[in-house]
Amino acid sequence: MSFDFDRIIDRRNTNSLKYDYAAERGRPKDIQPLWVADMDFAVPAEITAAIQKTAAHGVFGYSVPSPEYFQILSDSLFKRFSWRPQPEWLCNTPGVVYALAMAVKAFTRENESVIIQQPVYYPFRTVITSNNRRLINSPLVRADGGYIIDFSDFEKKITDNGVKLFILCSPHNPVGRVWTRGELTRLGEICLKHNVIVVSDEIHSDFVYPGNKHYTFHTLDDRFLNNTVLCTSPGKSFNLAGLQFSDILIPNGDLRKRFTAECDKCGYDQLNIFGIVAAEAAYRYGEPWLAALVAYLEKNADFIAGYLKQNLPQIKYQKPEGTYLAWLDFSALRLSQKELDRLITYKAGLWLDSGLIFGAEGAGFQRINFACPRSVLKEALDKLTKALS
What is the band of 2 on the pLDDT scale with cuts at 50, 70, 90? Predict the structure, then answer.
């Protein structure tokens, strides 16, 4: 099947966080946005049709997924990752970040420690500190232009701080690592040894490029099954973030009970009806579109590499193993983060994500979302070239 990912869709004046709120967030109104991680591509036609059919019905009362939904999800997970969950494991939430916050509250008490690996998706830090838990950081280590895990530091931080919970980012946002079986297994062994619950955010698991393989964390070892909360969603894979629907899979009955009890305390226990029908359509019909999308995104990642090598060799870039996010190293420019951010924003006219929001380890970096038509990506890189010339 043929899909047109080169088509430019005007997203302005659609209540888009990415496009319509630059001025409210202190940036020039006409800035080109390549920041927040949603895509500039229209969803598969089957998803649009499912939403339109629901909208045409005209009644939008409280809704829950149909009994058939679990089987559709299970079939999709088996086809993509060769494993099947049990029906009782499934908890649906209005988003993965919401689920992360609920897990922090369910599995730790105030002032207890939660460990993450910076530079990492910044809401990890927010859901920890805003809920009065101690943030413990075991930084990733730069090696050969990429990143590796310091397992000795990870274990020492756990033992020194009495860590109760680990939030894993797999594949990793923003550095683009797709963790190997060995790396994930070693993390799991350490967490089991010290009774640390693992919350694995695998929302980018469908964006993995050739030569790499995503391993669902709890499937690596039977012993990990009862120690893991798995967070998935069609939101990234099918560009449905605004429909507020995620699949949280918790095999351990006690952990599941504690998690759902925390969700109940929030009083937010009903899902968006359009999110429900869109998720079902995505998992039922979306595989050809998704496969074509990942192939297109890999070419975008390669385009960035070629462009920077030819035009901006001072910007260092390691092609991501997964995600649709490029982690660009501007440190050779020897600018402060404030100077770099101003150059990107006001001279290049680009809205990127400043590396510092992912932790101190992100100083000198910018994250760019390349899930857009290639002509849009080239336009942004041309602006950057002009600004640095």
Answer: confident
